[in-house]
Sequence to fold (303 residues):
Amino acid sequence: MNLGNLFKIFKIKKVLKFGFIFFGVNVLIFCLAFYRNESQRFMPYEYKLVQKIFNKISLNNDLGDRPVTVIIRAGEDMHFLSKDLGLCKDKDNYCAYYVNLNPFKKYKGYRANDLNNALNQAYLRGHIGAGASPTGNIVLDRSTFKVLERKESYLASILAHEMFHILQFGPFEASLETLKDTRENEKLTKKEMEDIFLKKSQVQEAEADLGGALMLYYADYPKDTFLKSMEFFYKQIGVIHEKNQSRKHPDYITRISLIKAFMNDESFNKEILDNPSAPLKWVYNRKENWLRFYPNKKTFSTF
Fold:
């Protein structure tokens, strides 16, 4: 074998070695990225806190048999900020796209600085904001965690209230009751129908308050936790007398009175469940910005 052939073999081996190293590094990077995307160890603090609270609630509550997805979003203030900046061109409607942006992401591209600054302002200046969907989603404005810093039990009250909404299928039940009350009356105007539905929806909100209060008591939170939380929620809003602030919910005085009456009722007592939802199975996705749990539904065979 001459010197030229030896050089070629050496060169081939060197290329192969480099190729294996390059391939290995890329596989490692891919695995690390995949791990980081789904690892609960690297979740934002806010998601870790939500997970901690739901784990506690699940120890002595039935959270149903459907997966529940928690999404932390930019928040309601982005509706106004995006309009101020001219990012949201729709002057007459709700800027849902910007409200629901991922607040943990740094955006790039056209007007990225404006968008990132708006996200920061929404976090720093925003109020408590949360909602639930019959599809099994709970959304939380990121500013909620700033306002409720060191008030973990108050955040638990929000999660319990929204969880009860998911269990009760509130909009459907309110709509069904409206249908039953109005189907024989063809003379009702659209406005009259909407008012009837609104009243039914307020009943659903009141039920979610009472259900959430009992859910926390079952989970060994102090009996008055939900009441104190609700009082604080309205205080941080500030102005509460305007009619449009209570259209979807009963007004402050009504809500507090209903919660107090329920707490003093003999039906407000703690039971130990034989088949709670714990332990919950958790899945996290950083890229898509959600945390999901699956209740543990034990089945028992009878013979």
Remarks:
- The longest strand covers residues 68-73.
- Residues 27-34, 299-303 have pLDDT under 50 and may be disordered.
- The beta strands are 68-73, 130-133, 137-141, 281-285, 290-294.
- The two ends are 81 Å apart (CA to CA).
